[in-house]
# Entry
Amino acid sequence: MASDKATLKFKTQFHSWELNSLELPVEIRKEDSRLFTRTLTSKRIEVPAGSYFVSTRLPAGQQLEDFVTLQPGEIRVIELRPDKLDESPSENLEVQHFLRRAIGASNSQTETFGPDILSPNFKGVDPESFDVPYSGTRGLNTPQSSSTPVRIEFHWYSGNTLAEEPDIKEVSVQEWISQFTGPMNVEIPNEVKAERECVTCQLQQPGRPIVNVRIPISPSGNDPTISILVPEPEAPSFRVGIRLAHETADLLTRYLRRGMYSEAGESISSDTMTGEYLLRNKTTDPIAAAVGSYTILKIGKLDALHEWTANLMNLFKWLPDGAAIRGEHVARRGEHLEACRAFLLLEQRGLPIFTEGLSYALDRLRVYSSSFSAMPELSLEERESTKHLLKRLERFTPFVDFDRTYVTYTGIDSVNPGLKGLKKS
# Structure
């Protein structure tokens, strides 16, 4: 008897292999627009014969879509490609165009791109780019090149900024003098890769406050791609671009940053995002595991974490986010004594890489430092440590941009943040 089912497979049609290799979340709706199912572009799916709308949304807001009518027994490859109006103005800007930011024309509903970073009210600097509602390539603001060479410096630091006596050391310095006609990838120095703890990259540029960005480098390898993003009319500063080596984890950070939780919820179902895959010997990627944990915490599927967070905290002591994730996980289960002790590990491990982890630590420690009576098992020393750690973390809060994925703050001194330290031309 012939099957009344049809099979759908998916293929994206970008210019760059970086985008074509992504596992994008796909939404399949019936002809009357009712949701039928969600899946990933890497999977094949059987559906009843009939007509369907198929679509996927990129982190920068563009939507790739198609309408198909399937016959019983048919196998159809759906080619998802950008609309002509949504295409990148240049192949070498395609990744930035579709993943890093929504570049588009201003319209009546468009907000400003954020505060001027020279304003006394500014509280942080964007390590990637400011956001703007997507409206296609019309009116596109392309990166500006400088008519004269510009001097850009990266200063790489290691050490624990939260220690009682911080032992920060400058590991490496990089310098470029260029007109910077477009994004430029930066080779991470070998001295930085050799560090067995998290690092901070300090960006210095003419006429702008000095910016510190926590960089997701893992001692086990899987280094991210770091790039210098050039100024644009709405974002007049150079920025640090970060793209994780684990493609699905990187995609998740971008969906979460823009509040696209349905897309993030589907992307986390990728086989490459399971704890078993990310934390086993041959594919160990604790940075991607941290992203997966933050995603699950954000969408509220705590049962999916199991003891993944305990392994992340205990196996990777160099990663501050393991402690922050574990603390938040058990706090949501009502185990506040264990949660407080997990957050206290930040004293030895340092400032989290991800802004979400810093937010968790601040929120929980503020509660715990004012409610010790609810945790009588907490020793006097632990209570004092809770208050001291909170005080150290709160030094950073006025100068951190909490809208960013990676902890980013201003100041020439990576231990004592502030607006001082305007780089002279």
Summary: The chain has a mean pLDDT of 84.
